[in-house]
């Protein structure tokens, strides 16, 4: 085993960066500064998803030929080291052919993912590709953003939209342009190799993502010195983007005080109104704190509306996204209901803990101790809240007990 320089460890450098690898499930994944270190919790939820996808009963796409497993098309957004992509391919290689495309905005991460692909190549009949792309690239027109709630939050202009060649040398291409190029290449490869699995129909089946989801406040207060000092902040904290929109299509940009504050300010100017002034100051302070907390949550959640927009545009029927805690899981479930409820006629949603395959603390109402944050939601597994899993039951069946898993509007 390589020797760890004591001064390096004393500075808090993660052991994974010193050794250069970390296990992710059965795979040893190369790690390097500039890409997030793979976590065992993510490997656990990924493995559970692969178990579901491996079952013939759970296929989100019908078999193209009798007795021949259908090809599964998986999209991995914010792929980082490529660990999720590689583990899904590895676990499903003995069950069905899998094509996985991993996207990330970081050239360092994509380079590392390709190195890991060289160590863990796809199995027979399967393919893995990693591409540079901006997951937060907006819809092609502002009309789409205003009419589609799922596309609304990522509606800020981005010069990367258009062809896969960005308009600036340093701007990554949009995810849409990368998918168009990938789909065209896949069809050309199929024709050239005379594949019998049928033409590429531009149909994706599964979307997975471990996006940046840590709020700026959480990053400052709860992350370790090792994380703050060595792991890329951009892989943990979403960018603060001006001109963002909420899921109901209303702008979240603040150009003035919140509604109702004008009256408070007037009260503060009443002559000899000391009590009123003190009350006004207290209310203003509480208002600022509320604004900051709301903005903090908006930043933490910035990727989820964009991911749901990708899910709608690509037509996937299975979705797994990682979250930071129970409160964020509750917000993401609300987004899923709003954006996918009409698209997926038989929408099912679960909240997964670190170990979703372990039948403990399982049931409705957040029985693991989160209280009201997960009230009415089906929570699966043991450990901390880790992910939100959604699927269209018309196209995908869970072979687990899902008698309580259907999420209905309260």
3D structure, described in words:
By secondary structure, the chain is of the alpha/beta class. The protein has two domains: 12-238 and 303-322, Rossmann fold (3-Layer(aba) Sandwich), CATH 3.40.50.150; 261-300. It is 37% helix and 15% strand. It has 14 helices and eleven strands. The chain has helices spanning 6-10, 15-19, 40-54, 83-92, 107-119, 142-147, 149-152, 175-193, 216-222, 225-230, 261-268, 274-300, 303-314, 326-340; strands spanning 21-24, 27-30, 72-77, 98-104, 127-132, 206-209, 318-322, 347-355, 363-364, 378-380, 382-392. It has a nine-stranded mixed β-sheet, sandwiched between helices. Strand 3 (72-77), helix 4 (83-92) and strand 4 (98-104) form a beta-alpha-beta unit. Helix 13 (303-314) runs parallel beside helix 14. The longest helix has 27 residues, at 274-300. The chain is globular. The N and C termini lie far apart (55 Å). The model is unreliable at 63-68, 142-167, 196-200, 242-246, 248-271, 365-369 and 399-410 (pLDDT under 50).
């Amino acid at each position: 085993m390589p020797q760890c320089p004591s001064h390096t460890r004393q500075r808090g450098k993660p052991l994974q960066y010193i050794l250069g690898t970390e296990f992710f499930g059965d795979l040893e994944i190369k790690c390097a500064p500039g890409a997030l270190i793979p976590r065992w919790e993510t490997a656990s939820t990924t493995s559970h998803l692969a178990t579901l996808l491996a079952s013939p009963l759970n296929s989100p796409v019908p078999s193209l030929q009798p007795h021949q497993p259908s090809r599964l098309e998986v999209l991995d957004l914010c792929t980082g080291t490529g660990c999720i992509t590689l583990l899904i391919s590895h676990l499903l290689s003995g069950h069905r052919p899998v094509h996985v495309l991993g996207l990330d905005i970081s050239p360092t991460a994509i380079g590392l993912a390709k190195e890991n692909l060289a160590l863990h190549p796809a199995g027979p009949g399967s393919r893995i590709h990693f591409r540079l792309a901006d997951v937060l690239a907006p819809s092609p027109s502002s009309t789409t953003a205003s009419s589609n709630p799922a596309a609304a939050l990522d509606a800020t202009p981005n010069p990367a939209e258009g062809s896969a060649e960005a308009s600036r040398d340093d701007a990554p291409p949009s995810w849409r342009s990368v998918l168009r190029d990938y789909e065209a290449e896949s069809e050309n490869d199929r024709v050239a190799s005379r594949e019998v699995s049928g033409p590429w129909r531009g149909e994706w089946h599964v979307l997975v993502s471990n996006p940046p989801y840590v709020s700026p406040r959480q990053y400052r207060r709860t992350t370790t010195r090792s994380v703050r000092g060595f792991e890329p902040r951009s892989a943990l904290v979403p960018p603060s983007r001006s001109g963002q929109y909420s899921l109901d299509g209303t702008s979240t940009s603040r150009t003035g005080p919140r509604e109702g504050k004008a009256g408070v300010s007037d009260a503060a100017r009443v002559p000899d109104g000391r009590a009123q002034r003190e009350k006004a100051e207290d209310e203003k302070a509480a208002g600022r704190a509320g604004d900051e907390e709301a903005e903090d949550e908006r930043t933490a959640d910035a990727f989820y509306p964009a991911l749901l927009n990708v899910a709608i545009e690509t037509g996937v029927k299975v979705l797994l996204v990682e979250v930071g805690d129970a409160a964020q899981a509750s917000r993401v479930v609300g987004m899923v209901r709003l954006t996918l409820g009409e698209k997926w006629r038989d929408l099912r949603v679960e909240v997964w803990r670190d170990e979703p395959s372990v039948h403990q603390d399982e049931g409705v109402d957040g029985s693991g101790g989160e209280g009201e944050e997960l009230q009415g939601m089906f929570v699966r597994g043991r450990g901390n809240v880790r992910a939100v899993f959604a699927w269209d039951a018309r196209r995908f069946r869970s072979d687990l007990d899902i008698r309580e898993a259907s999420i209905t509007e309260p």
